[in-house]
Amino acid sequence: MRCLVVFCHPVPESFGAAVRDTAVAALAARGWEVRLVDLYGEGFDPVLGAEERRNMDRAPDDPALAPHIANVRWAQAVLFVYPTWWYGLPAMLKGWLDRVWATDVAFKLPPDGGRIVSLVSHIRKIGVITTCGASPWISFLMGQPGRKTILRGMRALCAPTARTLYVAHYNMDNSTPQSRAAFLSKVKSKLAKF
Fold first, then answer.
1. pTM of the predicted model, to two decimals?
2. Which of 87, 123, 143, 152 has its CA 20 to 30 A from that of 168?
């Protein structure tokens, strides 16, 4: 299986980096081919500019997006590793979705206004591994918009039988070395079965 891991955290020594490393190692241990994209590490530009927005009826032509588009076309699975901030996706990751999961990359818009046609039905697995400052209950009350964006909105374009995965370390603001170690063990275990 070919898996694209999209990592989004601004602090290289963060717990998120340990989560990323655990996830990549767990997938590689299964014999999966993994491509890692570190959005902050590469200085990805998440800003969808005016000209790009005006031309959203076709694939983006910004050369900086070409490797990202190639990765999406290559992947059979996509795993997102990021912190949940304000119950949703970091702005950097949202910008990546806006700019990369675009027309003629992730979907095609029929000229007659008909149904959107998926161009990513080759993606059979889509997952999220995240940390949340809030408790599970508060996150649920707030509607978990980040989870829904990826596991409902994006998944709708993937293979009809695409499997999903969601693993979250809640109460991250009160985490301990023990809770973080337990979470890394959980990530490894969940990915062994994903």
1. 0.94
2. 123
